[in-house]
Design brief:
68% helix; mainly alpha; 2 domains
Length: 117
């Protein structure tokens, strides 16, 4: 059976690693893997030295506020409606063009085209 060696980590190293977790540069799992320690140990450091990660404290992380997201979605809808309107105008124009050409030629161009396809 292999004898376990107790390791002692410097306070400055602990504080540095906690700061990196707070800044999002490293995760608990990454530190655990790099330094060969349990995740429980890293979480103990977080609870002891971090201002963000205290027991019984919830940290809510939002990438964007809801109102900002709603504004972006409203702008996106407006852009899509404008694009759809432009496409519809083009379709209407082409249908009218097809109708005028059929009248001038005296043939139903749309039916002829469908037979060819």
């Amino acid at each position: 059976m292999e004898k376990r060696v107790q390791r002692v980590f410097d306070l400055q190293l602990k504080l540095d690693l906690v700061r990196k977790i707070e800044q999002g540069k490293l995760t608990v799992a990454e530190i655990s893997r790099i330094y060969g320690m349990s995740k429980v140990t890293v979480y103990k450091w977080l609870y002891k030295y971090s201002q963000l990660y205290k027991k019984q404290t919830r940290v809510i992380v939002e990438s964007k506020s809801i109102s900002k997201k709603n504004q972006e979605m409203a702008a996106r809808i407006k852009d899509l409606e404008r694009a759809l309107g432009q496409r519809q105008m083009r379709v209407d124009y082409l249908e009218k063009l097809l109708e005028v050409a059929s009248d001038r030629l005296g043939e139903d161009i749309e039916k002829k085209t469908k037979r060819l396809l």
